Amino acid sequence: MRALLGNPFKPMEPxxxxxxxxxxxxxxxxxxxxxxxxxxxxxxxxxxFNKRGQECTARYPEIVAALPAALSGRTAILDxxxxxxxxxxxxxxxxxxRALARRPAVRAxxVAALPAxxxxxxxxxxxxxxxxxxxxxxxxxxxAQALAPAEPVVLTDSFPAQGRLLFAAVEERGWEGIVxxxxxxxxxxxxxxxxxxxxxxxxxxxxxxxxTVTGEGAGALLLGAYQEETFVYVGRAGSGLTAExxxxxxxxxxxxxxxxxxxVPAPRVRGLTVRxxxxxxxxxxxxxxxxxELHLRHPVIVRFTPEPxxxxxxx
Length: 315
Description:
alpha+beta, D-amino Acid Aminotransferase, Chain A, domain 1, 2 domains, 6-stranded mixed sheet, single chain, elongated, CATH 2.40.50.140, 6 helices
């Protein structure tokens, strides 16, 4: 169906799954910590869309430039993840910097400082044929034939049957998790149980820049980390604090109290009673993922640490 090419659509998305598993009827791929991008190439023009159907072609000129050679004359719609690597790992905060670079001058700086990689994991359309009804294995076979991977457009590896082994490998590397996909699954826009995402609970060292006040003392800690030289707010966490922590923290932090918010920019704290403190206390936080606002989702305080505040940096 040629009308599909050049028109945004909702990509297929996995459902959450609690634990990794092994199954010969499934393939397993790394879950990249990036931004979902569907790339259209009609032989003359490339267009990139995010999962909401918003066009973002101008933000990734290096990918647009690489697509003609990667597809060598074919017309196609690719599905994949836009990633920025930092110290060998995908960095969601850094790929968000790319996504939020809208002005031409800022965008040019971001392209130079934060080069993107497009990790392709599915093929939706090829040379006039819509491939959504085909099974995953057939789509991947056609993708391998059609795409000539060359940085920064790269084909994602797929691993058969052994989901537990792949999950252990990505957990060791500090990556986001894995996606399990039925070998015979068609491509169905929107959420589908044919695909399952299994995430690693990750950890981040944070500094305390304030706390909310309740009748018991401290309610939640307001947490931050350094993005380059800027101390940015990454969310608040109360889970993991004991009753004794809540009682003792106001007195412990009293010498560092300040009238000035230490975060840049200041977070919204309407309806909350907050005491700001100079960042001196650090905590290890376990969390599910980063939000698009670069806040920790479902953070839990694991422990207080002796680490210096300077060690609290965004990944």
